[in-house]
Design a protein that fits this description.
The complex is a heterodimer. By secondary structure, chain A is mainly α. Chain A is built from 3 helices and 1 strand. The longest helix of chain A has 16 residues. Helices cover 39% and strands 24% of the residues of chain B. The chains are: A mainly alpha, B alpha+beta.
Chain lengths: 66, 256
């Protein structure tokens, strides 16, 4: 079992994506945050993979897909 | 300046917000109205509405920066008060619009704050190593018989491997349901997020469960006990715990 505490070490970006982009109370805000538009984010995932993975330690990068 | 809203809490807004910096490096402050506090910061609206992002490296860095800054504020609040997180990127034209929001939706916000009070979100992922998982006798190669040719043996082996993989997948999925049910039993509410993309998470094997559990603070240990009970790396079964989180996954009414 691996635990991770947000206070202890940096939270994984992918766990933040799960929670912050698809969750949270939605109110009718008046300005659209274009960068966080969900469809856009989905389209951009491939680019995000590249930029995120490049900064991760080698150990985590070994063998990605199942 | 526009007003970026991070979260809503019950009054008074905790002291610890003071001195914090938000998504634009701005000081975080609170707007109090009718027994509720909106935790906000003043941001340049152009930063958020100028032009559609194209998903380039710069936009993605900006997104990651936003995610982390937003999370930092919410998480700091969650330490000592009930916090209702708003979706990333909620921006209003000014403080008075935020006051109107608190006024118009007060009953709904109060009900949600009541529902999440004294509870914490935990994340539990179940990862199955498809090779090590539960190799049973039926998964072994069938005997093709001495008379079978090389081509036949190859086809039989291929078909057998596919069936074995399918059986292991089915068992992994069943185990995920079982683990989720056991975690749900100690939780006040639960949700299953979509499994993460391995290219993003870097995980190995099959992620068959990516759950979120809203747990009464007195029952955290019970949740941890369930996680330990099912965690069995030798059998290719690994559970990953994340948290405690502010109740992001439970900020809206439960969806069916």
């Amino acid at each position: 079992m691996n635990g991770s505490t947000p206070a202890g070490r940096e939270v994984a970006l992918v766990d933040l994506l799960d929670r912050l982009l698809a969750n949270g109370v939605v109110v009718a805000a008046e300005v659209t945050l274009s960068v966080a538009d969900v469809d856009l984010v989905r389209i951009s995932l491939r680019a995000l993979v590249t930029s995120v993975r490049a900064r991760e330690p080698l150990e985590a990068r070994r063998e990605g897909a199942a | 300046m526009a007003t970026y809203v991070y979260a809503i809490t019950r009054r008074p807004a905790p002291e610890r917000v003071r001195g914090m910096r938000g998504v634009s490096g701005e000081p975080v402050r609170s707007i109090e109205h009718g027994g509720l506090s909106a935790i906000v910061g003043s941001v340049d609206p152009r930063r958020f509405s100028e032009e559609p992002a194209r998903g380039g490296e710069e936009d993605l860095r900006a997104l990651e920066g936003l995610l982390r800054a937003h999370h930092r504020v919410v998480q700091a609040l969650a330490g000592d008060t009930t916090v209702l997180p708003l979706r990333l990127g909620t921006v209003y034209r000014g403080d008075e619009r935020v006051e109107a929001l608190l006024e118009d939706r007060r009953a709904e916000f109060e009900a949600t704050l009541e529902r999440i009070a004294g509870r914490t979100e935990w994340g539990v992922k179940l990862l199955v190593d498809s090779a090590a998982f539960d190799a049973e006798p039926e998964d072994r190669e069938p005997d093709a018989g001495p008379a079978a040719g090389a081509g036949t043996r190859y086809l039989l082996r291929r078909r057998s491997e596919e069936r074995s993989r399918q059986r292991r997948w089915d068992r992994a999925a069943a185990l995920a349901d079982q683990v989720h049910a056991a975690l749900d039993a100690v939780a006040a509410a639960s949700r299953r997020h979509a499994p993460q993309d391995a290219r993003l998470s870097g995980h190995r094997g099959w992620m068959v469960l990516n759950g979120a559990y809203l747990v009464d603070q007195g029952r955290d240990r019970e949740l941890l006990a369930v996680v330990r009970r099912f965690d069995d790396p030798e059998r290719g079964v690994r559970l990953e715990l994340t948290g405690p989180w502010a109740p992001y996954s439970f900020a809206e009414e439960e969806r069916a």
